[in-house]
Write a structure and sequence with these properties.
Chain lengths: 212, 64
């Protein structure tokens, strides 16, 4: 049993563990418009000189200027809209052009395997970007899954990497995006880090994808 | 047993460090610290868009 649990990687403070922070940050921004608390905390982000660090610093500066009311309006235009928002942040839409298609069905099979279910009070399909980020955070923290990096890698490479970069690119240049331009940039830079870092894992198991 | 598949190559941790993952810790620890850990995105926001608690742990109820 203990052989299925990754210990060193999950040690608090390690780089592996720290990866869950950006996922949670992204999940919060995409799940709902940011409240004052999230804006204040975002304003305190400090970046270093890396592309990711600079994206964080830009988000911090933008968050310092933002108000919850203003960003709520932005969020509505971007993701809710009248009828539909400017951006449809779903895997199925990005991969097939339609909502609730095969990628969602494949994701649901995977989530069931991982022991993750949608909360009862949401009707939102599971392939929403916020849900996927929450799942990754859970896989990293050990709340979901078996704690293996290869499980994370498979989930990321099957359900996130094939489309999320395009979502962030679209959001960065979306007409209504202000603060969310910076959220998108953080997302894009982080996704690139994750892609490269997962490629460094010996992932034989990860070759088994849901879709074949 | 399948330890190999479970361990990052040495380069991975260094890469993550160099890529600035550590930088996020200072500020974001607050964003996603204990409070958020226990109850991420607590209550539904007024927008009516509820992804909060989108996922929950069910495996205790299942085979484990």
């Amino acid at each position: 049993m203990e052989s299925t649990v990754v210990e060193p990687e999950c040690a608090i403070g390690s780089e592996e563990r720290l990866r869950l922070l950006p996922y949670k940050l992204l999940a919060r921004y995409f799940a709902a418009p940011p409240d004052r608390e999230l804006l204040d905390l975002s304003a305190r982000l400090e970046g270093d000189g890396t592309p990711f660090g600079r994206a964080l610093a830009a988000l911090a500066a933008a968050a310092a200027e933002a108000t919850p009311e203003g960003v709520e309006e932005e969020y509505q235009s971007l993701f809710i809209g009248l009828g539909r928002g400017e951006i449809l942040p779903y895997a199925s839409y990005y991969l097939t052009g339609f909502l609730q298609e095969r990628p969602l069905a494949e994701l649901r099979i995977e989530l069931e395997r991982l022991g993750v279910a949608r909360a009862e009070d949401t009707a939102e399909p599971e392939d929403h970007v916020a849900a996927l980020c929450e799942v990754m955070a859970g896989l990293i923290s050990g709340a979901f899954g078996d704690g293996r990096l290869t499980t994370q890698k498979r989930f990321f490479e099957t359900h996130m990497a094939p489309w999320m970069g395009r979502l962030f690119a679209d959001l960065e240049k979306a007409r209504s995006a202000r603060l969310y331009r910076h959220v998108a940039r953080v997302g894009r830079c982080f996704l690139e880090i994750e892609e490269t870092a997962f490629a460094m894992i010996d992932g034989h198991e990860a070759a088994v994808s849901v879709g074949d | 047993m399948r330890k190999d598949t479970n361990q990052a190559k040495p380069g991975r941790r260094d890469f993550l460090k160099l890529a600035g993952i550590g930088a996020v810790a200072a500020g974001v620890a607050g964003v996603t610290g204990q409070k958020a850990e226990a109850a991420p995105d607590t209550e539904a926001k007024s927008s009516g868009y509820r992804l909060t608690h989108h996922v929950r742990k069910v495996y205790e109820l299942a085979r484990f």
